[in-house]
Amino acid sequence: MTSHHDVDAVVLDIEGTTSATGFVVDVLYPYSRSRFAALLAERGDDPDVARAVDQVREEIGDPDADAARVEKALNAWLDDDRKATPLKTLQGVIWSEGFARGDLVSHFYDDVVPTLRAWHTAGARLYVYSSGSVSAQRAWFANSPEGDLTSLVSGLYDTENAGPKQEAESYRRIAGATGHAPDRLLFLSDRPGELDAAREAGWHAVGIRRPGEPYYEQGVGDHAQAGTFDEIDISTSGSSA
Fold first, then answer.
1. What are the angstrom distances between the C-alpha of 85 and each of 132, 181, 185, 218?
2. Who contacts 212 (Cβ-Cβ below 8 Å, separation ≥6)?
3. Number of neighbouring beta carbons within 10 Å of residue 240
4. Is the pLDDT at 239 greater than 50, yes or no?
5. Is 182 helix (H, G, I), strand (E, B) or coil?
6. Who contacts 237 (Cβ-Cβ below 8 Å, separation ≥6)?
7. Residue 125 to residue 138: CA distance in whole angstroms
8. Percent of the chain scored above 70 by pLDDT?
9. Which residue among 32, 71, 178, 199 has the highest number of C-beta atoms inside a 10 angstrom radius?
10. Average pLDDT, stretch 222-231?
């Protein structure tokens, strides 16, 4: 069933929405796990790495934690699929390098890229809001099977520059940063808690339900839902932010 929304911008979740969670868990997670130790040993003085390591130490309550203790914490969070900001930062560094080397190519469901191109052509602004770091998001869209898609995207948001994905304030922050009124924004995600938070902030929200994804059986609560992006019809006011 087609869902129609009169909005000026669409904000995209990645895992379970544009792309398969299984790819992230089965390909990207092991790739980062195998490289944490080398990153901490070789790049510990890089500002992004050093800041993330300090955040790990703060979260585990050990200001003097050495690289081995930090790596242990990262792996434990990975096992728990915890959306910890320093974990996502360090994964982003590793994945960006992996994409740049050609070790990695991102995954998108077949319906996603054609629909994003159509929405972009129709004048809708596209943004990403994912628990993965901004650097990981940029690498993801730059290294798709269909080439560099970053020209389609007007902005990238994560838990560090926007806040937690299940808090309405994060969506208010994104609305303010993009310059779009909340009721001109549409959020797409597979997670009910995120959809609830977006709606609380005054946004439109559509739950994406793809068979095989972790939240498929749970459903999306009382939100509008779609199985593919091409079931969502977007019309814009013609204004731009």
1. 8, 27, 25, 26
2. 20, 22
3. 13
4. no
5. helix
6. 6, 8, 184
7. 16
8. 98
9. 32
10. 97
